[in-house]
Amino acid sequence: MPDDAPEKDRPLAPVGGSAEPPEGTPKDAAAGSPAAEMKETAKPPAPAAPTASATPAGTKPAAPAARPAVPAAPKEPAIKPLPLDNELVQRMKSRFGAAIQEAWLDRKQSIIVVARGLLAEVARSCRDDEEFDMLTDLTAVDWPKREKRFDVVLNLYSFARNERLRIKAMAGENESIPSLCAVWPAANWMEREVFDMFGIVFEGHPNLQRILMPDEWEGYPLRKDYDILRQDTAWVRENLGIESGQ
Amino acid sequence: MSTFNNLLPYLWPVIFGVVIVAVLPLLAGYVVLLERKVMADMQARLGPMRVGPHGLLQPIADALKLLLKEDIIPENADHFLFWIAPLISVTAALVAYAAIPFGPGFQIADLNIGLLFILAVSSLGIYGIVLGGWASNSHYSLMGALRSAAQLVSYETAAGLALISALLLGSSLSMRALVMAQQKMGLWFIFCVPIGFFIYFVGSIAETNRAPFDLPEAESELVAGYMTEYSGFRWAIYFLAEYANMIVVAGIATTLFLGGWLRPFASFHAHIPGTGVEILDLLPSLLFLGVAGYCVWLAPRQPVAVQKLFMLAVAGFCLLLAGVLGWSLAVPEFLPAVHGGFWFLAKIFVYIYGFLWVRFTFPRYRFDQLMSLGWHFLIPLALANLVGVAVGIVLHLSLGWGLFPSLLLTTLLTLAVAIFLVWGKERHARLAALPSDGA
Amino acid sequence: MDERSIHGMSGAGTTVLGADEIILNMGPQHPSTHGVLRVKLKLDGERVVGTECIIGYLHRGVEKIAEHRSYQQFAPYVDRMDYVAAVSNGLGYCEAVEKLLGAEAPPRARVVRTILTELQRIASHLLWLGTHALDIGALTPVFYCFREREEILKIFEKYCGARLTTHAFRIGGLQYETYDGFEAETKRFCDDFAHKIDEYETLLTENRIWVERTKGVGILSAEDAIALSVTGPVLRASGVKWDIRKAMPYAAYDQYEFEIPTRENGDTYDRYLVRMEEMRQSRHICLQAIENIPSGPIMGKVGKVLKPPPGEVYHAIEAPKGELGYYIISDGTTQPYRLRVRPPSFINLQAFDSMARGGLVADVVAIIGTIDIVLGEVDR
């Protein structure tokens, strides 16, 4: 979880409209206390005040679930991520136990970290039991300073509940992640792209090949140690007939 | 001198043939320009405007460009076939002009099997297409060529059957005799066999590979067609063959259905009192005078001096034509030829305008849909139409009914058959397609 | 490594595999693939038995670039992804960053953003319609569509100076105030547009040939669509009534009434009808929005230097092509740590295989057109 950076200068107080209570934002109340220590530069307490709702946790995250008329833009500076322990998380913990490693709410969007070995089962359970029928996105993030450097991130969406959920699984340099193609066929190209850009191998993928870069490219471009100006000069020389950097 | 006079009947067709072969490419080029202008008009734009005033020199520029292009022959192509294929196409198209009556006595050859000759010779053009596809040594050129050939053959059958229905009324294969029959009847055959005309119209669009039946040569389809490997002048020859073919089928349709060189209301002889001039014969001159007047009215409204001059030049040209047409009224031996030629060309123009209109309005048929349309709809309809016309004629001859009423009756019956066929096709398509499809 | 294709003209080339299976390559350069897309079709006679899309010809490394630019510096890059609907891309990005910052654009900015985005939706669908009709052989609608699109692009040009890659919005609101006559011109366009759509419909909707070419072609069922994460008009034509503008409203969409067109069959004809109706609905939204643009500031209070607190956000909008999402991770500095674009065209293109398999080769072009892809977004 990327909160290794200490809390520092908050952005300027967000403006735009007044008390428009986003529904039961738990983090606002909870933000009352950590926010107090966050605010070094004395920003007016107005943002935190109007929406001090009492429930610290447990409401649905992300966008408004069933009320089409409420705008979704969060205006409260409840930007610090907060731990999440709502019913969804509890159900998943009861199903998978320790495989559910962490859960938190960031900017009103819920995020759950699972162990990579059980990712396929968790995904299937989310699709079947929790009704998250659409895999909106599958991507990865590289945290080179961490021991398990890659985060594979799934964004899921439930039509029935009109909710989003983010699931992360951490993988080390040479560790593979189970492929989700059997759960959602949409994962096919998305996993290929992750493989192409990061080098993460997805076990069980029917056709794990590069998709955006040329097939014989060496190197995984979106890794942090791949310099932005770097190219596979051998490939360029052979296939384009020029010296890289022209 | 007398040998010259003896030879004259033989020289006349030769001269005429040479004129046609020389003029036709130019004419076809201007049909292309016409198409581009009409296309542009339907698409809310202007079309070629730069080369010559209003693009009038565009065909010349295109021809020059194509002549000067590099001649590329694919590596493993069969050189002889590659060379001869476009020639076969264009020769077939040009030879068909031999029997087309542009006016009374205005024919290269008045064959007594004229129509059969034209149909037979223009069908030879299919060889040019197939050989072109074969000689290109490309799998997909060949496939495109075969598809094109299949399409042409299927639609030619339907078109031929439609022509027979008109032949039954004309009782002769000679093109000249067919026009005379329409003159005698006082009615163009289109009014007697409208369904035949419709079938022939659709069939001729498919025969000339025009949209909506132009899948074999469409650019945005996968297979680029038999003309792919041809460039430069060879391609120009194919293109010329296609447009020459268009004019041939327009000529056939005009002769058989639209009264050939006859003036509308050819049997209506109202004379201007005191002269031998028929009022309706003034129509062509009046038409051109009208166009000239319109151009003169438009001239001052043009923004640029050159355009004003151009409008006046067009007006002058129209006045010239009106003058020629008017003068021929005074000279009776030229009257039939000049006016006949005018009306024939006017009808061809209208028919080709129909082609262009259809091309820019409809999307393209897929090949299987195209073949299905030809075999499942047009040919049965053409057969029904043929039987209908035959029955109508028998009713007229043996039962003494008037020709037009009996034909009207059979036309209605054939329409019923057409509706039944369409309904049957839709039902078939509905059952074969989606269950919840509500056409 | 697959076999290289023999380059004939127009991308036709063959490699004969078995006795009756051919691989046909629609090369990266092809009049109908709407960009540099390479499609390999395995054919059995006329039937398509397998497809493979080879993409990446337009990959420019946008996500990598984002890690080396500040948030404001990156904004022009997003226009270049779906270059046909640049304004939507900008809207998604600016709103995602605003969410990351916890900032919000003022009401006036939100309404103007909505108007411009809906105009852009109409423009994008017009381009789609013109090119799709052209692929199927109707040569005329493309010119009419571009004539209307020209009016919209003129409005954009007057507003922000650019027609195509507009960079119309800024993080926190708008940079430019609407010009004099903005409402009047937009209203005039919307008033004319209704009967122009009717013109296009006259040419195509009831036309037998159009119907025969598009009905039953490229069917995608609702279950398949959801399993393949297809979004946008393709999903709605398959029967799933879902539009982010209604489900999770953003900008000013919650203030306006509009319908979500949906069809059941999921074939090309339905997708055509859905997009036509969407154009009408967009026009309706524009008219409602123009009536009442609130006054006030156009830029929220965001500083010059944007350093969002560490964390991440995923924000999605309903772009003309589907759900366009931005997943941005901030590490507290001025440059995003990771910026992922969820590209609707890329994900919708995956469904091409399921739609084309079992159909005829002549329908492939229609199917590619009906998914409505822009290669800039597919490859980024």
Our count of helices of chain C gives 14
Report the major sheet of chain B.
none
Uncertain parts of chain B: 434-439
The number of distinct structural domains of chain C comes to: 2
How many helical stretches of chain B?
15
Write a structural description.
The complex is a heterotrimer of chains A (246), B (439) and C (380). Chain A has five helices and eight strands, in the order αβαββαββββαβα. With 246 residues, chain A is an alpha/beta fold. In chain A, the strands form two sheets. A six-stranded mixed beta sheet of chain A has the order 1-2-3-6-5-4. The longest helix of chain A has 13 residues, at 26-38. In chain B, α5 runs antiparallel to α6. Chain B has a domain at 69-262 and 354-432. The longest helix of chain B has 41 residues, at 2-42. Residues 434-439 of chain B have low confidence and may be disordered. Chain C has 14 helices and nine strands. In chain C, the strands form three sheets. Chain C has a four-stranded antiparallel beta sheet, covered by helices on one side. In chain C, strands 7-8-9 form a three-stranded antiparallel beta sheet. Chain C has a two-stranded antiparallel sheet with strand order 5-6. In chain C, α4 runs antiparallel to α5. Chain C starts with 13 loop residues before the first strand and ends with a helix. The chains are: A alpha/beta (246), B mainly alpha (439), C alpha+beta (380).
